[in-house]
Amino acid sequence: MKKNDLILIAVILVVTLASIAGIRLWQHNNTGGAAIAVVTIDGVKYGEYPLSEDVTQRIELPDGSYNILNISGGFAQVSEASCPDQICVKHNHIKYAGETIVCLPNKLVVEIEGGEDNGIDGSTH
Question: What pTM value is reported for the model?
Answer without folding.
Answer: 0.67
